[in-house]
Write a structure and sequence with these properties.
The protein is of the alpha/beta class. It has helices at about 1-15, 30-40, and strands at about 45, 50-55, 65, 70-75, 85, 90, 95, 125, 130, 135, 140-145, 150, 155, 165, 170-175. The longest helix is centred in the N-terminal third of the chain and has 14 residues, at about 1-15.
Length: about 180
């Protein structure tokens, strides 16, 4: 029965709610945001008191996504199923979390025929992080507590807690503490 409800809410979200105007639209923005949040509460594996699910956020089936209290997903973000988002996470628009890679070790075979790793790595974003606009994260990133990722960064490795990182590839800019 739970799977039937999940499918119905996926249809409602992808067929209708994702196209509603943005969460910050004057007058009705909060209502549109509430409708999207209501949908994902029935889709995600675990949901806290979410602050924002903005328009056209894409999360596949969402069945293994966990999101903590007061966290949000910006407009046009791509969040794969194997993602855990902590509390107080701000995710700006157009953040792309890459879910998987291709195998490429056998040079005698084209990469497109080598497939993907069987178990894609889990992306974890700990509490109180700020992910800037148009950040790209490679598979399996672990963004530690209090980290700020600058806009336009390509995150290819993990950093310590309370880091401010940016660039392509992202490098440590400074520590917050």
């Amino acid at each position: 029965m739970k799977n039937i409800f999940r499918v119905l809410f996926l249809i409602l979200y992808y067929g209708f709610a994702q196209y509603l105007p943005g969460s910050y639209t004057p007058i009705f923005g909060k209502l549109y945001n509430s409708i999207r949040i209501w949908c994902v509460k029935h889709i995600f594996k675990k949901c806290g008191k979410i602050s924002t699910i903005d328009r056209k956020a894409y999360f596949g089936t969402g069945r293994n996504i966990e999101i903590g209290d007061y966290s949000g997903i910006g407009a046009n973000c791509i969040v794969p199923n194997n993602t855990i988002i902590g509390k107080y996470v701000m995710m700006a628009p157009e953040v792309h979390i890459v879910a998987n890679n291709h195998n490429f070790n056998d040079v005698s075979k084209p990469m497109c025929f080598q497939g993907s790793p069987k178990n894609p790595p889990i992306t974890i974003i700990e509490d109180d992080c700020w992910i800037g606009v148009r950040v790209i994260m490679t598979p399996g990133r672990h963004i530690k507590k209090g980290t700020i990722v600058a806009a336009g960064s390509v995150l290819t490795k993990d950093f310590d807690e309370y880091s401010i990182v940016g660039g392509n590839p992202a490098k440590l800019i400074r520590k917050r503490i």
